[in-house]
Amino acid sequence: MAGDTTPQWLRPLEAAAGPRYLQIVNLIEGAVEDGSLRPGDRLPPQRSLAELLDVDLTTVTRAYAEARHRNLLDAVTGRGSFVSARKEQFGPPIDLSMNIPPAPKGVRLAELMQRGIAEVLARSSADLLMTYHVGPGALADRAAGCAWLEPILGRIEPQRLVISPGAQPALVALLTNLAAPGATILTEPLTYPGLLAAARQRGLHVVPVAADGEGILPEALERAAREHGARLLCLTPTIQNPTTITMPEQRRREIARIARAHDLTIIEDDPYSLLAGDAPPPFAVLAPERTYHVSTLSKGLTPGLRTAFVVIPAGAEPDALTSALRALTLMPAPLMTALATHWIRVGAAGDLLKGVREEAAARQVLARAILPASAQAHPNGLHVWQPLPAHWDRYRLIEAVRQQGLGVTPSDAFSVEGRAPDAVRISLGGVPERARLVEALKTLAATLGDQRSRTHVVV
């Protein structure tokens, strides 16, 4: 680099300073922090910067993409890249804490959405899509939901299915209907944080049921139901969040038998069965007369659809659930529901699910090769449950990896009673690029193996 054309903030790259594209990002970030680059400043064209730094164009392209991911740059088509006016960055640069599906290879979601919405508008009235829609959902949308769930539930009538704007409102609505304030609900010792938040808001007493490597223990469930007089059991039996345990069929049948014996209603939170591809029959099949089955599109397709399907017990009426959902959210977004229905009908949803499953499986292969052997995961899952070695506790680990730009979720977020094991959940879907994910996992694995942590004290 030389001459008057070299920006003042540029420095030569160093062979031993890590990946060159990340060095470029760090130069940009440092220049923004010290004021050498200000919001609105235009960066050199990628080809020019590659020549100045004596690197290939791909390296600079990757650096600019990472800088945009960190909210350092904005790209304006036809004009170039500019320093972003958004100075605040929420969360760590590499987020392994958010459980979202990875972008599948060969699928351009923006193009899929544009084409899908255009096709929806060609077949529907825009005025109708932009008005209020109350009730359990249009018959066509409910029928599409039934078709989507048929691989795991078999044929069900649309009258048993209610459309919800995501699984979280559905869980809140179900707890509102099925448990009076102060009532006891039973669940796994570690469970979905959204369920815990909903239970707290409702004023419910959540009791953990002892579990092993196959899920909650039948004898522990029977004892808890008898001692606490509980009438509600909430479970995620497939790729459990966070432990990744999938309850085998025989255990499910034992739990269903106990639920009948103690008149327990089951809320089955099931975001992963279609993604897993090998799940045993759900409780909605084994105990259909007492199971509310909640299945969201957020984990298998994309969270932005804000669409979930709730299958109510055979013989039940949807009115109470519909009323509770209406009080919470009024209605699902009609355009998103219509898009989800269209994708299901034309096969796009199935193709997207297949792509997500394949990408998740590829990322799990990478994780198995990098993380310690103690890591637990399903081959098609979105996350890994990582027990910590004896020389780490979760609080020091979280701080250590945060200082290295990584974010993971500690076990405390999932603990029912506040007594959590030293473990973290590692989500694999939120990092756009596999190469970037590999770097993050290697950093995490190296940190886990660092024996020097024995002497570290965080105050």
UniProtKB/TrEMBL annotation:
Keyword Transferase attributed: yes
PROSITE patterns: HTH_GNTR (PS50949)
Domain annotation HTH gntR-type: ranges: 18-86
Gene3D superfamilies: Type I PLP-dependent aspartate aminotransferase-like (Major domain), Winged helix-like DNA-binding domain superfamily/Winged helix DNA-binding domain
Keyword Coiled coil assigned: no
Record keywords: Aminotransferase, DNA-binding, Pyridoxal phosphate, Transcription, Transcription regulation, Transferase
GO molecular function ontology, one term from the record: DNA binding
Homology family: In the C-terminal section; belongs to the class-I pyridoxal-phosphate-dependent aminotransferase family.
Name the record gives this protein: PLP-dependent aminotransferase family protein
